[in-house]
Amino acid sequence: MALERLNPEDQKIEEMHMVERMFHGHHLYQMDDDPAYCYDPLVKENTFITKEKDTEPLPTYEGSRDELPELVWDDNPDGVKCYNKAWEIAFSNLHSPTPEDSMVSNFIDTAFNGCLFMWDSSFITMFGKYGSRVFNFQKTLDNLYARQHMDGFICREIHENVKGDQFHRFDPVSTGPNVLPWAEWESFMITGDMDRLQKVFPPLLAYHHWLKLYRTWPDGTYWSSGWGCGMDNQPRQKPGYHHGFHHGNMVWVDACIQQLLSCHILIEMAKLIGREKDVEALKEEEVFLAKTVNEKLWDEDTAFYYDLWNDGRLNMVKSVAAYWALVAGIVPEDRLERFVAHLENEKEFKRPHRVPTLSADNPNYDPDGGYWKGSIWAPTNYMILKGLERYGYHDLAREIGKCHVDNVVEVFRQTGTLWENYGPEKAAKGNMAKADFVGWTGLPPIAVAIEQVFGIHGSAKDRRITWRIRETGRHGVKRYPMGEDYVDLICPARKVGEKVEVEISATCPVTVDVIWEDGSVQTVHAG
Which of 215, 314, 334, 447 could form a disulfide with 306 if both were Cys (CB 3.0 to 4.6 A apart)? Predict the structure, then answer.
């Protein structure tokens, strides 16, 4: 019996029964009477598929304010108001599973169309991690894992109120981008939750397998589509292909690098949970993809990574898609300075609000945003900032991050809310943007303010915080999460270059490395 001919209520039960009959080792098995499905045995380990629905009551913002991290920013009261508003909107978008749907965990809505999006939800968790002591935002992703097909596929958009995916899995726009492993890893850095790593590893690896089976060209490179890569209308394909719905018969630079990043993170997860044998093939793929991206998708004359058309030409569209190379850590040292320099070029990516998703020298660039034709988007900015930090460009990350936060806060001051995207040429919402978008726009006032503007990065696993102090006004975070514990971090007002006595207290043992402008490090032990 073909599973897709079953009604939604019976499909999950029948799938699990088939798994019990089919799996006898770590190989893919194909049903003789259903050639559309190749079953991945890792899905048998996916406990989210049979998870009981959450029954815990949802917290409220008013009832949780005193437990959330508190932003201290004496020089920027509007920044504090914007930070608080982001949490308020986020908590208004919390939902619980119902008997009628197939959601399994309490979750935060994407705030777009009544569906849960893979791409959006992954980035929402990257600021939600700071509120994990109040609400486990990471469990939003449980609902995507719970919808995993037996061959490993996870739809990029799932209905919240009814059962079923938005797209057939072989639709070119059905899934992606694969940022789920990165989202789980970022959360783990804050929470140190090893139990969750154990649970998410099988569905993440099975999904990676599916993409390798069904989203690659014969040479092993990856493809996507406008909707599949998340940047819906960005003009990257050859003329004649639909920007949103077709793969364009090209090699997609972001899809290749995201899969490389998935390889790297899953390998690191496997080391921690003792499953290194499961990722041997990923080690080979990681090397292959890094070599391919650097040899085939790099243009030496312009010092940039591009998509590759099927006629052998690079598309020469400077998109933020290329900057996944920084996050993945694959840019050779001799290319790094020239590649990063595009972010400092006022004719390209250094616009009044940084960083537009399409370079300003592209003929399709829209100064009002045009959705993905130049708008400023929280997720792509956050990706760039994390990539810069990985390569040690902390000052540039702070400069871009502060520009982003300042513009978001100014538009908040004007409009009283946060927006889906922003214009690149002035402090304004994008010309095709939805309001109250938290949603991933919680990133700039929460995560970017804490991480890039304040320079605070923590690891619950290591019980350690790095704090690069550059602000001169009194600033910091109270109740900064460290697993189930928290840390108070306050820097008094000071002059540029002045070293002052920071105020640090903690409910657990923690080491804080304070890094001053001159590069000197002051280590503080608290708790």
Answer: 314
- Distance, CA of 308 to CA of 329 (rounded, Å): 21
Burial classification of residue 198, based on how many CB atoms lie within 10 Å of its CB (0-12 exposed, 13-18 middle, 19 or more buried): middle
Convert the pLDDT of each residue in 59-118 to its tens digit.
999 999 999 999 999 999 999 999 999 999 999 999 999 988 889 999 999 998 889 999
CA distance 61 to 110: 17
Find the Cα–Cα–Cα–Cα dihedral 414, 418, 420, 422, rounded to 10°: 40
d(C-alpha 483, C-alpha 29), whole Å: 40
Specify whether the CB–CB gap between 79 and 405 falls below 8 A: yes
SS (H, E, C) 102-147: CCCCCEECCCCCCEEEHHHHHHHHHHHHHHCCCCCHHHHHHHHHCC
**Of 170, 231, 176, residue with least CA distance to 208:** 176
Closest CA to 281 of 26, 19, 22, 25: 26
* In contact, 308 and 296? CB cutoff 8 Å: yes
CB-CB contact of 74 with 475 (8 Å): yes
